[in-house]
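User: For a teaching handout, I'd like to show students what a predicted protein-ligand complex looks like in token form. I'll give you the sequence and the SMILES for zinc ion. Please answer with just the structure.
Assistant: Understood, here is the input followed by the structure.
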Amino acid sequence: MEAAARWYESQELDESICLLREPHVDPFARCNIWLVRGSERNLLIDSGTGLSPLTPVLPGIDGRPLIALATHIHFDHIGALHEFSDRRAHGSEAAAFTTMPDEVTLAHVFRELVRPVTQLPAVGWRAAEYQVQPAPLAMTVADGDCLDLGNRRLIVLHVPGHSKDSIALFEERTGVLFSGDALYDGELIDSFPSSNVNEYCATMERLKQLDVSVGHGGHGPSFSNARKNVLVEEYLAGRREQGCPRPAARVTGAGGLKHEVD
Ligand SMILES: [Zn+2]
Ligand SMILES: [Zn+2]
């Protein structure tokens, strides 16, 4: 318990949303773990690398049922998923959750980092032995599904591109978006084996349409709607020449979009 408490850091964003992170994990593999407390149910969005038990450090969950949702199957988002019983993710990689093969979770990328951690999660821990624990899904989710927490209702958006199973969650009443690795304020990655640039562009066009009050990504700081649109346009501008479909009504040149960053 004490070791776990030292492994994670947490930050209460408001009375219902808590952000947890693993500060001793290499920034590349340090995801944002979001706990959303609802009146009937709690929701955990991603679960980190699994290097230290996560359950003992979840604050204020008060015995209500907890849904543990993975935004996608990459190791840095699903390591502690096995600790929970109500495990959910998009159905397109459902089979892989039962065996967690490296080629899908990318756990080998973590093993091969020069310095994966700055502090050992346990005595005798070795990066070379790192594996993601199998965590068969209790249920799959699909685009348009609603996760009903009682006082909060989050809609599942299938947002492939970074990975084929990437999902985001959008709360229409408040405009809160949890976007996983589909969109965060940092360098987006579309070069993994299950990445697809064309699908990513379609995802970005969809995210552009959302009116977001705040975006909570899979990595990096949270972002405003204006910043979301800059991140979307930056991605699209950089990928247009690779054959991303350009919407017919679009008249803006890619060159003009770059300047919005500064
Ligand atoms: Zn990822
Ligand atoms: Zn990630």
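For the handout, you might add this sentence: Residues 31, 74, 76-77, 181, 218-219 surround zinc ion (ligand 2) (CB under 6 Å).
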